[in-house]
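Q: Entry one of two.
A:
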Amino acid sequence: MHFVEPTIYLIGETRVNENSLQEYLKHIGASDWKTDDTSEVEEIIEVMGRNCYKSFGTELNPNITSTRKGNKAYIDNIIKVGHGSVLEHGFLNFMFCDVSRVFTHELVRHRPGVAISQESLRFVRVDDLGCWVPSAFRQTGAYNIFEEHWKRCERAYQILLEGAAVYEGVAWDKLSFDKKKYYTSAARRVLPLGMATNIGWSCNIRSLRHIIEARTDRHAEEEIRFVFDKVARLVLSKYPNLF
């Protein structure tokens, strides 16, 4: 076993197809429109929002006499008036690594606007369990208790799989993939809920703003608060007009 600390990686984000965007702007008569966004995620949200009222300029819609200039001013107003559906057009793709199943069980409670792909303990054999120790027990120096328990769970898991191979009468490596999956799926039940795992998590901007607010609250569970503090700091720096 080994001790870990959760980490996050932003591995993808909404991109703008510039050629098609220019064709669209030409189609509606707004070829001269430009924006001053700091990212393509912010740009696509502005474009989708302005499309609603044709507010790329006052000449496109007789009902309007002025438009907000600049990406920040436009998005600030979108957020102020609660036009949240526009924010759903921007998507971010994260990988959360060395997080516990405690964390992932909390994370999957957020369903609207997200997509999830979690490391499967049915398919993936675990040979070296990772452990993150919460501050409540870090402060008491109880690392040895976590370490001993993780090692026992790790060993119990190994014994179960070794026993399965003996029962089948072949070395583990010689088992078919279906057999490996069968036994790995069953043996995972002895692994601790706090074991480190990885989860891919994608989210639209509207949902992410809500989740950051909820999960960085001082009453949030410690690990998910720790992770979403990292998320918040990252998106604040990368997408300042949206956060």
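Q: Entry two of two.
A:
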Amino acid sequence: VEVRTDGVIAPAVIRRWALIRPGENLLSLDLMRVKRDLEMYSPIAGVSVERVLPATLRISVTERQPIAQAITWQPRPGGGFNAVTNDFDETGVVMQPLDPAWRLTPVPTNALLPTLTGVPPKDLSTGRAAESPQVLAALRLLTVLYRSPMAGMVELQSVNVASPEILEATTSQGARVTFSLGQFD
């Protein structure tokens, strides 16, 4: 099994997720099942699977790139709360952060992601896209910022999406900036 990826997930992990047994007959293998199985993992945006005869299965993976995170609190059995982190890609798809053991290089990057606060609970379903206009606008803001000349000059630390008509961003320097949902310039 030959694995190619455009991201950071280790090929051995992708092979394991594909659920292909060693020695399995390449001609009887259901390629659509392999594709579906891999696309069930939220960090994976797309997959192509092809047979390369006589004995190779080629899997090409496109990974989602997290651009923001939201931290929520879930009750712990016996009392207290656990922090739960969800990542968002630029299209709003929610994913669990990658386990460092799944990465080619086991370095977590979530500490560098801006945090979205005030995210509605309905927008935190793993594998699904957020629907809230405020969350989607915050992700567009981050995407626009990352691609602008301002990217090297300012770093957004958090974006509050709780208000219906505005985004309240805080920079790493402590500045607070208010944006409308669509006029980022």
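A: Comment on entry two: The chain has a mean pLDDT of 91. The radius of gyration is 19 Å.
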